[in-house]
Amino acid sequence: MEEFLQRAQSRLNRSKRLEKVHVVLGNKPCDLDSLISTLAYAYFLEKVSPPDVLCLPVLNIPRRDFSYFTETRFILEELNIPESFHIFRDEINLHQLNAEGKLSLTLVNSNMLTSEDKSLESAVVKVINPDEQCDRSLELQACSSSLVVKEILQKAPELITQQLAYLLRGSILFKCMSLEADRITEQQEKVLSILEEKFPDLPPREQIISVLQETQFNAQGVIIEEIMLKDLKEISDGEIKVAISTVYMSLEETDKIFSERSPLLFAELFTASVCL
Known about the structure:
Blueprint: H1 2-14, E1 20-25, H2 32-48, E2 53-59, H3 70-78, E3 87-88, H4 94-99, E4 103-108, E5 124-128, H5 144-155, H6 162-176, H7 186-198, H8 205-217, H9 224-230, E6 233-236, E7 241-244, H10 251-275
Parallel strand pairs: 1-2, 1-4, 2-3, 4-5
Antiparallel strand pairs: 6-7
């Protein structure tokens, strides 16, 4: 994976006049599921696309915001994938590429572009939207990583390396770790079993979940505005925008916040949301 990312970064930096660029773009919050799916699907596209097509995974956040994503950084650092290899949204001009007729766009984890990117709709060639397959009657969380694994296994199973399996499996487990084991979707369980059978040296599920939970809740030194920006979602009717964020914390941390700061907590949260 690191070789692919380094090669993509190098081609992007060298090429002043790109002819064809296929960008895989994750959702705005850039959660672990979205990021890993973006990387894996761009890697798959690069292997099956003509050599004149530059396939790029683009993280849909500015580079400066990547420090907020502790669980994402952890799983990438575990595999020695440097942050410098990633391409962030503020480092590539998608609107210019689209205006020049060079852009193809695959959306991951969403079938909608933000209001600022509406003009890119003409470039969209594929949408990987797990919500369409989510069984809402059981309140099961959808996972784009399992859809990406399924497609790669169907079309080019030889591309699944142990490193890629580690990334995708970690992403799926992170998405499901708040659920009871018997409430993981059948598709997710099938994908996890295939990866574990193919690569028996992968760490136990419980170990990965435990470390990811610890990493997720480890927000020391992160202010409330940064936590809210990490999981920012936008809802817009074309005129009015509403920003919604999710803040994860342990029960111990919740008790501490309310016992020490309850008079100011809601005022601080409101101020942070307005600043967004």
